[in-house]
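FAQ: What does the model actually see?

It sees only this:
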Amino acid sequence: MTTSSLRLPAEWEPQSAVLIAWPHADTDWADRLAEVETTYVALAGAVTRFQPLIIVVADAALRAHVEALLREARVDLSRVRLVELPYDDTWLRDSGPITLNDGHGAFQLTDFRFTGWGGKFGAEQDDALVAGLVQAGIFGQAGHKRIDWALEGGGIESDGEGTVLTTWKCLTQRHPEQSREDMSAILRDGLHADRILWLDYGYLEGDDTDAHIDTLARFAPGHRIVFQACDDASDPHFDELKRMGDELAALRTRDGQAYTLYPLPWAQPILDEGRRLAASYANYLIVNGAVLVPAYGDKADDEAARIIGQAHPGREIVQVPCRPLIWQNGSLHCITMQLPAGIAH
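And it is asked to produce this:
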């Protein structure tokens, strides 16, 4: 393998597995553990319909508990692998590996520094998770490259063709001393990309990632972009998301064409003890042959699923109940990390 042949695949390319970590009493889910486990069980059932699932568990007791829950829900345990490792929390989109491949069976696990979203939360164990998975033999002979620069997987979108989409709000919070040009150069080098597209607008109340792109706008096949819109002029998000939509409309593909845009509907405000929660439909997960779409118990759920299906033709659309997840400021994509075909053993 030559490093020049590596690239960051798009999420819709073939996968070998999805990686998650199970919530437990020593994570931030402790106060609502039984509630959030219903989402994790539903997610496990949905993923294993289409491909294997790797679940990180904290210890043998949690392993037995998870196996019992999945067995009771009739999840296909032959498609589940459990791995015991320590972790602080369960947001594997951000603490898991960003995997590059060369198209010929060689892989590089790109392991950026995870700082708990800019030091908001303790993250020492999460920052060591990729190394622990490598040591556990999950990834066979894949290379492991540590990069001492803070970046979360939820902060980047790849089209698989060398273009990466990200947000200025997030990366300038992580690296306030660096210019956009500096950060673009680091992203191009670390992700083997040649085009970095930046959004200056877009945010969601209740999101503590500083505007991760995977809550806002997602690449889809055929030069499409799916994005979270807001059609309620009285909502505090309206102006910001309209500006983001205008930015997306101004972006161009590598050959100078406009992207085809798919605006997603806006869920009604979901409050928890007066705190607005970030109910983004853009936070969906693509798996082999399907798209798993967050549902929040809102009247917009079905329309969001329909639009996501239009942007990803030929895939089954499976809604997963995600209202418990947004209590901790994330959703379906945030708790998962897909692994490209051929890497998981």
